[in-house]
């Protein structure tokens, strides 16, 4: 059974950057709905024993178009939001360190440049979708976009996601209205780079 992340912080812990009502609605309504629907679709497809990453990478094996769509959309919603919420902290590390910092400096020229690339990807994602920091198995970092609830696994990229930046309107509209750029700037205020580093080291280890 796929389990929705239990937040390691309270709904109001990310204030003033992401407001409590948005976190509560996003997590307890949107994410919970994706999780429930994903579990139902995975059971129907006989794929509930897989990890989310394995299942989303195996969508081509699902012959029923409607079931495949349900798995892609709800599985993406499940996985993407688990990563999104997991990388936040009420006391985040504001700087990358260690091997992650070295790779950021090598591939982007520094943390500010990486943030600018992620912001650009998030701002230019038309409609609903995500901006991602990803790595390949060799440790090379890059920034990509995806529409709707797609992600590097469902898109069969062989890339490993490290940061999921949600630009669906439900992620920011209660507080920021149409000011997506302000939300993106404040996303970085609660992003914990130590958590990103742990994912990076696990991915390339």
General description of the model:
The chain has helices spanning 20-45, 52-56, 65-86, 98-108, 111-123, 173-176, 180-190, 193-204, and strands at residues 129-135, 141-147, 160-166. It has eight helices and three strands; from the N terminus they run αααααβββααα. With 205 residues, it is mainly α. The protein is globular, with a radius of gyration of 16 Å. α5 packs antiparallel against α7. It folds into two domains: 20-86, Fe,Mn superoxide dismutase (SOD) domain (Helix Hairpins, Orthogonal Bundle); 98-204, minor pseudopilin epsh fold.
Oligomer: single chain
Using only C-alpha atoms, the radius of gyration works out to 16 Å
Distance between the termini: 27 Å
CATH C-level class of the largest domain: Alpha Beta
Sheet/helix structural class: mainly alpha
Count of beta strands? 3
Stretches where pLDDT is under 50 for at least 5 consecutive residues are none
CATH superfamily of the largest domain: Iron/manganese superoxide dismutase, C-terminal domain
**Average pLDDT taken over every residue:** 97
| Count of spatially separate domains | 2
Task: Could you tell me the CATH topology label of the largest domain.
Answer: minor pseudopilin epsh fold
| Biggest beta sheet attributes | 3 strands, antiparallel
Largest sheet: spatial strand order: 2-1-3
Strand content: 5-15%
What's the helix count? 8
* CATH architecture call of the largest domain: 3-Layer(bab) Sandwich
Helix content: 40-55%
The geometry reads as: globular
What is the string of SSEs from the N terminus onward? HHHHHEEEHHH
